[in-house]
Design a protein that fits this description.
Distance between the termini of chain A: 31 Å
Number of helices of chain A: 13
Distance between the termini of chain B: 46 Å
Number of strands of chain A: 0
Largest sheet of chain A: none
Oligomer: heterodimer
CATH superfamily of chain A: MetI-like
CATH class of the largest domain in chain B: Mainly Alpha
Helix content of chain B: over 70%
Number of domains of chain A: 1
CATH topology of the largest domain in chain B: MetI-like fold
Number of domains of chain B: 2
Low-confidence stretches of chain B: none
Strand content of chain B: under 5%
């Protein structure tokens, strides 16, 4: 496109570009450059204090030979596998209940949203207090109602991961419920009405109309949940610090320690790229499976 | 008649499940609030007291008056991050969104798709080079790393504003063009006043994200005098032998501003979430 002086929109074209310049600068400085730099760093032994040496794939080879890193990967996959289905199923069910035209229903929408808007630090600290082994509210209630002695939750290697997943479901369901609710409100009422006339039951309508029509929402909700779960950090940092005995040590927590506490920037960059490849492969695979139809 | 009984049963079951779920969602907050009013040593009293006796504000006093905890400074620090961030995001995103929607400049749609593509990059990949960049700029232990990238890489906000401005009729702007208005005047005098709902959505989402941000302050701020509220709370959390009452008072204080803003602007917030789930 030429910008000659007789063009009446000349000024508008120049200004249009100027208006998006801040974002272009941000793109170059804070996205494009770090992306390239991160690939380079992952092939070096950079540690802030000495000049980076190019060491080829050594960081990656070390990671793949590191039993602890495999355990961390396993923990992360476990976290994703526990978290995502629970989020999808619970938020789908809650959204269906919240979609009913009942008195006072909006109060519940607000209630489910309060954990969502809370920071992970505040939520994590509070849940640590609830889950405290001897004096926590949960174990106190379990004992006084059911006479069951609850486990030490976050302090018990067998229960720590389950507790962290429960915490994340507790905090995240409200958000996904809102996405499902938006999806439900896009389903035309005529479809359900027509099915009603045909004599279908409520359960049939749920499985054969609601769920198929919500597929784009389910795709989006689960895609977001997978991407976010693979990058879990805040709640692990606040609630368990990766412990006990590495039971909740996940990839980004490990990356944080390697990079920012031990200052092994090269190794940390390699960890980041392993994570990127995992997330990208899963997203691409799911996108292909869905026929490439959904834009998410 | 049969149908209405069915409806009553259906409504009852719905309410029971919803009330039970809402209790699970809210109990931790009620318990945190309750604990924050308890005296040291009284946190564990059985039977459980929701409204404690004696009722004390000591924990809150301690947070604000203790020179080491110094929540007054912590609050101020957090505002020094959140206010410039929010103002900057509102301005830059609405300007860019307006340009992407209404000004026909060369390469516009390519640039837009390119920027949207960056939303797919996981944050952890750019983390380390960004840190090294901030370090070489001398920005460690300043608030800039928490403010500047948030403003300049806010693609979600620009997308949100663009979608809104697409719904503004072109005729409105054409008459301004005939009158010889500059593009900035069109943005500032016509588009911006129309976009109050979208701006509110962006305001609450940005403020919340900035207020609740933990990883950024954790990496970039190491001097206690610069701690933001999430960092200060996390620091308290890691102190061995800290009183639960004090910790819960900190939690309540950290949630309150976000909660109030959310209750005031809830409608806009939900619209923003719904839009993030839209395809295309």
């Amino acid at each position: 496109m030429k910008l000659n002086k007789s063009d009446p929109f000349r000024k508008e074209k120049i200004m249009g570009l100027i208006f998006v310049t801040p974002l272009l600068v941000g793109f170059l400085v804070f996205s494009a450059y770090p992306l390239v730099s991160s690939i380079y760093l992952s092939f070096t032994d950079y540690n802030i204090y000495t000049k980076p040496n190019f060491i080829g794939f050594q960081n990656y080879i070390n990671l793949l030979n590191d039993a602890r890193f495999w355990k961390i990967m396993k923990n992360t996959v476990l976290y994703v596998a526990g978290n995502v289905p629970l989020q999808v199923v619970l938020s789908l069910l809650l959204a269906n209940l919240l979609n009913k035209k009942l008195r006072g229903i909006t109060i519940f929408r607000t209630a489910f949203y309060i954990p969502v808007i809370t920071s992970w630090v505040a939520a994590g600290v509070t849940l640590r207090w609830i889950l405290a082994s001897e004096v926590g509210l949960l174990n106190t209630l379990l004992w006084s109602i059911f006479h069951v002695k609850g486990p030490a939750w976050l302090m018990d290697p067998r229960w720590a991961m389950i507790s962290v997943i429960m915490a994340n479901v507790w905090k995240g369901v409200g958000f996904n419920t809102m996405l499902y609710l938006a999806g439900l409100q896009d389903i035309p009422e005529e479809i359900n009405d027509a099915a009603l006339v045909d004599g279908t039951t409520k359960i049939q309508r749920f499985f054969y109309i609601t769920i198929p029509l919500l597929r784009p929402t389910t795709f989006f909700v689960s895609a977001m949940a997978i991407i976010n779960s693979f990058q879990v950090f805040d709640n692990v940092y606040v609630m368990t610090g990766g412990g006990p005995m590495d039971a909740t040590r996940v990839i980004v927590y490990h990356l944080y320690q390697v990079g920012f506490l031990f200052l092994r920037m090269g190794e940390a960059s390699a960890i980041a790229w392993v994570l990127f490849v995992i997330i990208f492969s899963i997203s691409y695979f799911r996108w292909r499976q869905s026929g490439g139809g959904y834009y998410a | 008649m049969r149908k209405s009984i069915e409806q009553i049963i259906d409504a009852t079951i719905t309410y029971v499940i919803l009330i039970f779920s809402a209790l699970i969602a809210l109990t931790p907050f009620i318990w945190a609030l309750s604990t924050s009013f308890k005296l040291p040593g009284k946190e564990f009293s059985i039977p459980i007291e929701i409204i404690p006796r004696p009722f004390t504000l000591d924990n809150y006093m301690e947070l604000f008056n203790n020179p080491i905890l110094n929540f007054k400074l912590v609050f101020l620090n957090t505002l020094k991050v959140t206010i410039p961030t929010t103002a900057g995001v509102l301005f830059i995103c609405s300007l860019a969104g307006f340009s992407f929607a209404k000004l026909k400049f060369p390469g516009r749609d390519y640039i837009f798709v390119l920027l949207l593509g960056t939303m797919m990059i996981p944050h952890s990949v750019t983390l380390i080079p960004q840190y090294l960049l901030m370090r070489s700029l001398g920005w460690l232990n300043t608030f800039y790393p928490l403010i500047i990238p948030t403003i300049l890489t806010n693609i979600y906000g620009s997308f949100l504003m663009r979608q809104f401005y697409l719904s503004v009729p072109d005729e409105l702007l054409d008459s301004a063009r005939v009158d010889g208005c500059s593009p900035f005047t069109m943005y500032f005098k016509i588009a911006l006043p129309l976009s109050k709902p979208a701006l509110m959505t962006l305001l609450i989402i940005t403020f919340m994200g900035s207020w609740n941000n933990f990883f950024g302050p954790l990496v970039y701020l190491t001097r206690p005098r610069l701690f933001t509220i999430q960092l200060a709370l996390s620091y308290l959390n890691s102190e061995a032998g800290i009183e639960w009452g004090l910790l819960m008072a900190g939690t309540v204080i950290s949630i309150l501003p976000v909660l109030l803003l959310f209750l005031a602007l809830q409608r806009y917030y939900v619209q923003g979430v719904a839009l993030s789930g839209l395809k295309g």
